[in-house]
Specification:
248 residues; alpha/beta; Nucleotidyltransferase, domain 5; 2 domains; five-stranded mixed sheet; 7 helices; globular
């Protein structure tokens, strides 16, 4: 069976995956993407098509390799898809956000959905049941919030996510920071969900990104439990869907 090679270069890490039709069969998470690593995939698998997306700089050498060896698709917001893209500055739309809503439409055909990508930033992107995408929201992620409190003050310590802390107030400065950051971000997410449900009663919620499990656990214990799906490979699914649609 011929396979698709899907590469997603994010802010902090790179995912490289093999799909057979719509099934993810191989995934590697890398700190650095090299021509040698891509060549290994091309040798080891019968690659028919490939797609490459980067939220940072273009990697021209790797793109050239993919063009030579595969039916290569360069992913951009100008590529034809089943999405009715109504974003007013599509050239500035993050490619990971665009790929995620493509995946959402694929996974929840005929339903409205909200994609929450909880990574370096927390992004909110909705697509309605007709496939219309108008835009979304961007706010700081958990790490960025912890870093900012430390950086912009003289005495607050630098902390990180504490999965075990679930109280709504702290009894020490460290606990107060953890409570403020974690509960603040979660309350923000709940607020966005409530808004989108008021607009789209059929709303389904997809979580991805490095902190998706953290927020997903809390949402699964809320009134939104039946609507929530954690899909860590959402961007990869969206990129593969572009290949699938262009070769259908």
């Amino acid at each position: 069976m011929k396979s698709n090679l899907v590469i997603d270069v994010g802010n902090t890490r790179t995912k490289i995956a093999i799909f057979e039709n719509r099934k993810l069969v191989k995934l590697d998470i890398l700190e650095f993407l090299s021509e040698e690593k891509v060549s290994e995939y091309l040798v080891s698998y019968k690659i028919s098509c490939s797609i490459f997306s980067s939220v940072t700089a273009s990697l021209s050498e790797i793109e050239s390799l993919l063009k030579r060896e595969t039916n290569y698709i360069k992913f951009s917001t100008s590529i034809p898809t089943a999405i009715d893209l109504q974003y007013k500055s599509p050239e500035t739309l993050g490619l990971d956000r665009f790929a995620a809503v493509i995946a959402a439409q694929c996974l929840f055909k005929g339903l409205s959905s909200l994609v929450i990508d909880a990574g370096t930033c927390i992004t909110y992107d909705s697509i309605d049941l007709h496939g219309v995408y108008k835009g979304g929201s961007i706010s700081p992620g958990l790490k960025m919030r912890f870093d900012a409190l430390n950086h912009y003050t003289k005495r607050l310590p630098l902390l990180s996510v504490d999965d075990s802390f679930d109280k709504w107030f702290g009894k020490s400065t460290s606990q107060c920071i953890i409570s403020g950051v974690q509960n603040g971000a979660f309350s923000e997410i709940v607020g966005f969900i409530n808004y989108y449900i008021s607009e789209h009663p059929d709303l389904q919620i997809l979580l991805c990104g490095g902190d998706s499990e953290f927020f997903g656990t809390r949402l699964k214990n809320s009134i939104f439990a039946e609507r929530v799906k954690i899909e860590p490979d959402l961007v990869l699914i969206g990129l593969n869907e572009v290949i699938y649609q262009h070769n259908d």
